[in-house]
Design a protein that fits this description.
By secondary structure, the chain is an alpha+beta fold. The chain has six helices and eight strands, in the order H-E-E-E-E-H-E-H-E-H-E-E-H-H.
Amino acid sequence: MECKFELLPWDRAYDLVQKKPLSGLVSTARSAGREELFYWVGPLLSARTFFYRLTSNKHINPTDISQVSAYTLGVVRGNIYEELVAGIGFEKDKNLLTVAHHYEYMNLFFKNKIDLILSSELTLDYQLQQFGHGGKEVVKLVELPLNALQGNYLVFNKEMPIAIVERFNEQLEKLRAVDNLDAYRHRYVK
């Protein structure tokens, strides 16, 4: 099957996959509120998500989830994290900055303009490498509970023929049977 891939800001990609037939989006967190919007292929990969601070900001040291909203946080607009952090006390334009792309909040984080970032254990190193950092510059703090989520998926517009969606799920299961996707995890997630 031939596919065309485009890298777009999250909110635009999320909107397009709902409007454009024969389109898909990877990777999308599965939640009850999104369930009926898409056809789902997966789960692909899932990881725990934590709040992080700069190593130099020793004064920022929440020890449980009820304390993190005392600080400022940046997230991608429309990302599932925006919804989840609202439930623990973050408010847009108060202590929550929403941006189009993670590069924006990472840049502000490294300039000490926001206190915290959120990242999964799988993607943190990639995000840090984009700014020339290797991980020693950040400290893992408190885990964000992801109880309402069911993992990350490839999603398709509801006008996608169901046979294609089923084919993707079948092929994913064949790949998973080989090594539980470890070859892909190590190739793309470092």
